[in-house]
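quick one before i forget lol
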Amino acid sequence: MADDLPAPISPPPASGAGGTPAPAPSPAVAPAVQTQAAAQPVAPPVTEVLTFAEFQKVKLLTAEVLSAVAHPKADKLVIMQIKVGERTKQIVAGIREFYAPEQLTGKTIIIVDNLQPRKLRGEESCGMLLAASLPGGGLRLLTTDGPAPSGSPVS
């Protein structure tokens, strides 16, 4: 099918002063940023797609960490008391290898507020905090870039 197409037409050479052909433009040099970008990890392909209506069911809110303690029965878990608007609730998160409990108190974090509660090593977790996994194995909590009232909707 591609063989049926006519060959592209080249424009006539541009002429310089005195009717001589103008020199060919030099090839563009790719910026160094492109080389570095190629080394960045590629996100895995999406395996399941949510409809917009399904996504609207997820209630993302800001929350203030009131207190945080190491889970007595799990090396990786932190038990946090958080303030979401006028409510206080508990969430349990597997972030202890990245954050000491005392680093969390006072932080404004982003949570999924409407998850069904579940027990983690005997402690009830009534929500989930959001964090980004780093390529080298680290973790970064999702927070606000400035003050935001507890319980503010995140969109």
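fyi The CA atoms of residues 66 and 90 lie 10 Å apart.
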